[in-house]
Amino acid sequence: QFYTCEIDDTSPDEIYGGAQDNSTMRTLTGNLDDWEIINGGDGFTCIVDPTDNNIIYAISQYGNLRRSTNGGQFFSSITNGIDDDARKNWNTPYVLDPNDPLTLYYGVNRLYKSETRGQQWTAVSGDLSNGSIGGNIPFGTITSIGLSTVNTNIIWAGTDDGNVWVSTSGGTGMELISEDL
Question: Is 45 left (phi over 0), alpha (psi -120 to 50) or beta?
Answer without folding.
Answer: beta
